[in-house]
TrEMBL record, chain A:
Recorded family membership: Belongs to the binding-protein-dependent transport system permease family.
Record lineage: Bacteria, Bacillati, Actinomycetota, Actinomycetes, Pseudonocardiales
Listed Pfam families: BPD_transp_1
PROSITE patterns xref list: ABC_TM1 (PS50928)
Main location as per UniProt: membrane
The protein's name in its UniProt record: Sugar ABC transporter permease
UniProtKB/TrEMBL annotation, chain B:
Subcellular location per the Swiss-Prot or TrEMBL entry: Cell membrane
Keywords, alphabetical: Cell membrane, Membrane, Transmembrane, Transmembrane helix, Transport
Species name: Umezawaea endophytica
Database matches in Gene3D superfamilies: MetI-like
GO BP annotation list: transmembrane transport
Topology in the lipid bilayer: Multi-pass membrane protein
CDD domains linked to this entry: TM_PBP2 (cd06261)
Name recorded for this polypeptide: Carbohydrate ABC transporter permease
Superkingdom of origin: Bacteria
InterPro entries cross-referenced by the UniProt entry: MetI-like, MetI-like_sf
PROSITE patterns (UniProt xref): ABC_TM1 (PS50928)
Length: 299, 298
């Protein structure tokens, strides 16, 4: 995208009237559905609001409860476990796929096929894999059976549920991530590879000496964006395990949802949301720094 | 020049690399194939006909019953729970939801993006800065108060309530389109000014027609995200009249006729969420795939 040039105006203009007209819909949407609820959310977190009666201010009571809430700490732990599993596997696989595409084929069809899991709703992805992994009738367990292995209740075992969810979402997002990395690789000048090849460098050497160093800004950005998305996992869990078995997949987003809409504790749910917002806010700030950095490096 | 003997050497590394890529594509596509294959299988065959690549007795009954085109008795006989399902309606609801958000949001954000890129008015950079800062607020945070707001407006289970928070803007779309408008050469607009085109006409008659590409890119992104939406429409539009496909699948899953979910029906319903995506890929695949660069990240 073009740089933000400062060009001297031919004459002093003031488009105030037209400008506010152009901005009106966006500003209305912004104030009513972003600014106002952000303030309201912080306020709710300091109240006992339960949607039935008017909220009463309770100070930092919700936050005090949060510190002693084992389920909250478990939700943080479980989310962290998911994020680490998901991001680690997904990034490595995506990087590998991106390199393969970059060095082998420009095919739009291949890229389009890899993108399909990202284009369909997470609800569909969740149901699809729930069926594939079904302990009695699922395709995967049939294959395992044919290989002489016992059937596994992937989503019903406390030990397996979270790695399985992480695997499902990795399946759904790896192609998308690979395409983003691939787009970054296309910005690396081709002649670098040609001259390295003439010098007798192998593919691995080209990857470690050319691709990886030049891709670093894009890679960092993609990583942070994936992290932010990963912390907000909800849909897949909502249709498959619903936080179970025994809280093994009750991630932070799901816990907020439960508190707000099953227990009607809007105030408490808001306090958890504040914690999550702070966490994600820091990550997004990092993302925006990287976005600027990657511009100046590769644009 | 290489010696003739090396020409005969089989490029093992390349073949292995291709093999890995093919495996990745198959692993990506196969579950979708299995989804359609299951949807075409009679529920009674699920156990006996569990691994063949093609169903032994292919049938359309699962699609017909989830689309509400059979009687409830027929639906129950084919493995349904007997509860009312009307995926034809949910499909239309999804199109309405997705279409409203995509068209109106893109239009509004284009107008704002243009104002931020080209028009001069006091407070421009401040307002833009605040708007971009909102990117840091995660959706779950505004979701709770927005739900309370929509509920108190009496907008639950109406399209108005469902699209309200996103129909006018997302900070990202404004940001993306502003960046594009900044990159248009000013000379074009200056020439139009000499022809007497003013601010309003400039946008509609000069700038918008030049911006089809980026508008399509951001529109596609918005369409994909709203097609995938689940939690917000679940909270605000559960009822039949406004139920979108993702919500319908979640509810349908819980109406299991017995211990086992109604897999053949679920896979037929799931197929309906994938078909429009495939149509999109066939017609706009190249643009969609190529729009994914790191500036297009959401």
């Amino acid at each position: 995208m073009g740089a933000n040039r400062v060009v001297a105006a031919p004459r002093r203009r003031d488009d105030r009237a037209v400008a506010w007209l152009f901005l009106a819909p966006v500003l209305v949407g912004f104030v009513v559905f972003y600014v106002y609820p952000t303030g309201l959310g912080i306020y709710y977190s300091l109240t006992d609001y339960g949607m039935l009666a008017a909220p009463n201010l309770v100070g930092v009571e919700n936050y005090r409860e949060l510190v002693e809430d084992d389920k909250f700490w478990n939700a943080l732990k479980v989310t962290g476990y998911y994020v680490v599993l998901n991001i680690a596997v997904q990034t490595v696989l995506a990087l590998g796929l991106a390199v393969l595409m970059h060095r082998l084929t420009q095919s739009v069809a291949v890229r389009a096929m890899l993108l399909v899991p990202w284009l369909v709703p997470n609800v569909t992805v969740g149901l699809l894999w729930m069926w594939m992994l079904d302990a009695n009738l699922g395709f995967v367990n049939h294959v395992l059976g044919a290989l002489g292995l016992g059937a596994t209740g992937f989503l019903t075992s406390p030990a397996w549920a979270m790695p399985t969810i992480a695997g499902i979402n990795t399946w759904a997002y790896t192609g998308y991530t690979a395409l983003l990395l691939y787009a970054g690789m296309l910005q690396v000048p081709r002649y670098l590879y040609e001259s390295a090849s003439l010098d007798g460098a192998g593919e691995w050497r080209m990857f470690t000496r050319i691709t990886l160093p030049l891709l670093r800004p894009v890679l960092a950005l993609v990583l942070v964006v994936s992290l932010i998305g990963s912390f907000q996992i909800f849909d897949t869990i909502a249709v498959t395990t619903k936080g179970g078995p025994v809280g093994a997949t009750r991630v932070i987003y799901f816990y907020i949802y439960e508190q707000a809409f099953a227990n009607f504790r809007m105030g408490y749910a808001s306090a958890i949301a504040v914690v999550l917002a702070v966490l994600l806010g820091v990550l997004t700030a990092v993302q925006m720094r990287l976005l600027r950095a990657s511009r100046s490096d590769l644009a | 020049m290489k010696a003739p003997t090396t020409r005969a050497r089989v490029p093992l590394g390349r073949i292995a690399a291709w093999a890995v890529l093919v495996v990745a594509v198959v692993a990506t596509v196969f579950p979708f194939y299995w989804m359609v294959r299951t949807a075409l299988t009679p529920a009674a065959d699920l156990y006996s006909d569990a691994t063949g690549l093609l169903p032994e007795h292919p049938t359309m009954i699962n699609f017909l019953r989830v689309l509400g085109l059979t009687s409830r008795q027929e639906a129950r006989a084919a493995g349904g729970s007997g509860a009312k399902v009307d995926f034809l309606r949910y499909l239309l609801n999804s199109f309405v939801y997705c279409g409203l958000i995509t068209v109106i949001q893109t239009q509004c954000c284009a107008m704002a993006g243009y104002a931020f890129a080209r028009l001069r008015f006091p407070g421009r950079d401040l307002v833009f800065g605040v708007l971009i800062a909102a990117l840091m607020v995660p959706p779950i945070f505004t979701l709770l108060p927005n739900f309370v707001l929509v509920k108190s407006l009496g907008w639950l289970n109406s399209f108005a309530g469902m699209v309200a928070p996103s129909v006018l803007m997302t900070p990202f779309a404004v940001f993306f389109l502003r960046q594009f408008f900044l990159s248009i050469p000013r000379e074009i607009e200056e020439a139009a000014t000499l022809d007497g085109v003013g601010g309003w006409g400039m946008f509609w008659r000069v700038v918008l027609p030049m911006s089809r590409g980026p508008l399509l890119t951001i529109g596609l992104t918005t369409a994909v995200w709203s097609w995938k939406d689940f939690l917000w429409p679940l909270l605000t539009g559960r009822e039949e009249e406004t139920r979108v496909l993702t919500v319908a699948l979640g509810i349908f899953q819980q109406q299991a006729p017995n211990v086992q979910p109604d897999w053949t029906g679920l896979m037929a319903g799931s197929t309906l969420t994938v078909l429009p995506v495939l149509v999109l890929l066939v017609f706009l695949g190249r643009r969609l795939v190529e729009s994914l660069n790191f500036t297009g990240i959401k």
